[in-house]
Design goal:
Structural class: mainly alpha
Number of domains: 2
Largest sheet: none
Strand content: under 5%
Helix content: 55-70%
CATH class of the largest domain: Mainly Alpha
CATH architecture of the largest domain: Orthogonal Bundle
């Protein structure tokens, strides 16, 4: 059992004096590893949030922030992209494009009109018909300001909301909410200006831009871009502090090194160990499930429902409460790799071509890769990687069969398909329960474990009986 966090309602910023143990989980390592999932859906090179945290925390130290304020800053930057999935479907709808490539490239666009216009023409409806592309571009040209405000507001508000559910203080949530505000008042979503913008947001925005340009074009390009935005995007005092930090060659060499993640975890203010209990792990799993499910309107609530169905099956199969709790957590996170799949594929109203289907299949491998990085979730990575395997060996990604597929994975596979059939999808409406069960029953022994399916039937009979009694 993991030891309990001192404050049951929030991750504490006070000092912890208990010694590390093999059961301990550092909050920085847990959330830093999960932040790689956020990088995927922002279309950024792996480690973007971690690197931005390195940059921003150094700026905060140079500005003389107190340790408790640095703690807030550290997590505001590490989790700055919590809401990044919430506008992906809308981007695809408005721009008729791949949201991942769109987001990646948009990070390098300033607010100068020629750049904005060039971006719109080069990223809107390239694979659409001429008439559809023309209508999309015209809509963006006529309503660009409102569209940008809508997309950013959705993203920032959702990110702040998820941070609150993860028990972070309001100062962290406000930093996430105001990430895209600009010093000159021309940012989004609330057109805050100057000192009215939370300091953590001012630092996080600069850190984000530095990492984007450093990764794409190098140190000199990053410095030039920062200087070009002084007084427009960036607080001059924040820039001045960054320039002092940037004089140290070691700062840049670590930023570009393979040990950057280790360096960022060591940089956590206070170097204290926040020890996380089971309830908090549940909250974090649920929060990241919300990030996943928000990516597509057709998957809203999917992970939560799969967790409920998996728990119902596990209960019927006699799993202990502790094992069921672990299984629910795995179910919540089984699709985290979908953050790396474009909404142009996830929401496509039609058959996927081979390239699209390959990208879709890859989400299970991405889930396994992400969960493998997280000490607390490493033992459930195999479920993320195997929930589309079939008993007959015709599943993916490895073609596992029979007993090579763990019983927990078989349970989640049944729960996952049951929810997929009984929920709306881009290409069809939700199926009636008898039809869905009939389809699944025909696949017993090929796709689905007989015992797991029978447990689902028993659980649904109980639910039906309770509904009739009510």
């Amino acid at each position: 059992m993991l030891r309990a966090i001192t404050d049951a309602t929030a991750p504490s910023r006070t000092d912890f004096d208990h010694a590390p143990s093999d059961e301990s989980i550092r909050l920085s390592e847990l959330l830093g590893a999960l932040s790689h999932a956020l990088d995927l859906t922002e279309g950024q090179p792996v480690g973007h949030c971690v690197r931005a945290c390195w940059i921003g925390t150094h700026i905060g130290r140079e500005m003389g922030l107190a340790e408790r304020d640095l703690w807030d800053l550290y997590y505001a930057i590490l989790l700055k992209d919590l809401g990044c999935s919430s506008n992906a479907a809308r981007i695809c709808e408005l721009y008729l494009t791949d949201d991942l490539a769109f987001k990646h490239d948009f990070k390098t666009v300033s607010d100068r009109l020629p750049q904005v216009l060039g971006f719109v023409f080069s990223h809107t409806g390239l694979k659409a018909g001429l008439a559809d592309r023309f209508r999309a571009i015209l809509n963006i040209m006529q309503n660009g300001g409102e569209i940008a405000r809508e997309l950013i507001e959705t993203r920032c508000q959702r990110g702040a909301e998820i941070a609150r559910r993860m028990r972070f203080p309001e100062t962290v949530c406000e930093g996430i909410l105001s990430l895209d505000e600009h010093w000159n008042g021309q940012g989004k979503p609330n057109r805050l200006a100057g000192a009215a913008i939370p300091l953590y947001a001012r630092i996080a925005l600069l850190a984000q831009v530095v990492d984007v340009f450093h990764c794409s074009a190098g140190r000199a390009a990053a410095m030039a871009e920062v200087r070009s935005r002084i007084g427009s995007w960036f607080d001059p005092d924040v820039v001045a502090s960054f320039e002092r930090v940037a004089e140290d060659d070691a700062f840049w060499s670590t930023l570009a090194s393979e040990r950057i993640e280790e360096a960022v975890f060591a940089l956590e203010p206070g170097r204290r160990e926040v020890v996380i209990d089971e309830d908090y792990l549940d909250d974090i799993a649920r929060a990241f499930a919300q990030v996943v499910d928000t990516k597509s309107p057709f998957t809203a609530g999917h992970s939560e429902r799969v967790a409920v169905y998996a728990d119902m099956i596990a209960e019927q199969m006699g799993f202990t409460p502790e094992r069921r709790r672990w299984l629910k957590r795995a179910a919540l996170l089984h699709d985290i790799g979908k953050l790396g799949v474009s909404n142009a594929i996830l929401d496509k109203n039609g058959k996927l071509d081979e390239t699209e289907w390959e990208s879709m299949r890859n989400h299970s491998a991405l889930s396994e890769t992400i969960l493998s990085r997280v000490k607390a979730f490493r033992d459930m990575a195999r479920i993320g990687g195997s929930h589309h395997e079939r008993l007959d060996g015709k599943g993916y990604p490895r073609g596992l069969s029979g007993d090579a597929i763990a019983i927990e994975t078989r349970i989640i596979s049944v729960a996952d398909v049951f929810d997929a059939l009984t929920a709306d999808r881009p290409y069809r409406a939700a199926m009636p329960l008898p039809k869905a069960m009939g389809i699944m029953r025909s696949e017993i022994g090929a796709s689905f474990d007989p015992a797991c399916f029978a447990a689902l039937e028993r659980a649904l009979d109980i639910v039906d009986g309770l509904a009739e009694a009510a």
